[in-house]
Write a sequence for this structure.
């Protein structure tokens, strides 16, 4: 039983995807369903394959495959693959959800970054951003989206964002001042 307990601790790193999370989600039990799981306690890896579903509190993750690697310091990198892979989670103290989609999603607990690759989309309420790669840094709270330009300089499609006006966060631009 001990090897499974130790390996299962690696799985608990998925709650770290809670960049925008309800804080209470971390205290909720994690439920994982998949067609197959392979846990390697020596290598500190866990791989779930086949219609993988993860739920913890308000967080939901769906993918074809989820692979988790832990380094010697306990930092974890979670790779979620799908067509698309997705996550959804309620924001702390708000009645809104953040949803992300991509063919490959990576969360790094050490760097506190979330990366979405391949037809990446991020949605919050009516705000929306789309690109080939979206990076969110939880420490700096900065989003970066790019269009996936390749080495020849050609691009797949332009980054697109739709941001709704917020009455509670109205900004007066210098040219609008009287």
């Amino acid at each position: 039983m001990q090897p499974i307990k130790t390996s299962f601790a690696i799985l608990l790193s998925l709650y770290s995807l809670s960049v925008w999370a309800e804080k209470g989600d971390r205290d909720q039990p994690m439920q994982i369903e998949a067609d197959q799981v392979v846990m390697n306690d020596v290598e500190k890896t866990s791989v779930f394959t086949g219609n993988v579903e993860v739920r913890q509190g308000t967080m939901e993750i769906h993918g074809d495959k989820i692979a988790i690697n832990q380094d010697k310091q306990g930092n974890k990198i979670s790779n979620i693959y799908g067509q698309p892979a997705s996550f959804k989670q309620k924001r702390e103290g708000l009645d809104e959800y953040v949803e992300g989609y991509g063919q490959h999603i990576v969360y790094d607990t050490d760097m506190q970054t979330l990366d979405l690759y391949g037809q990446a989309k991020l949605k919050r309420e009516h705000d929306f951003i789309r690109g080939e790669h979206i990076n969110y840094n939880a420490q700096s709270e900065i989003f970066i989206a790019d269009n996936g330009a390749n080495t020849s300089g050609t691009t797949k499609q332009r980054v697109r964002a739709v941001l709704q006006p917020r009455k509670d966060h109205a900004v007066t631009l210098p040219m609008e001042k009287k």
Observations:
- Confidence is low (pLDDT under 50) at residues 1-18, 170-178.
- The beta strands are 30-33, 36-40, 45-56, 59-70, 76-90, 97-108, 113-124, 127-137, 142-146, 160-162.
- The longest helix spans residues 2-11.
- Residues 14 and 73 are 17 Å apart (CA to CA).
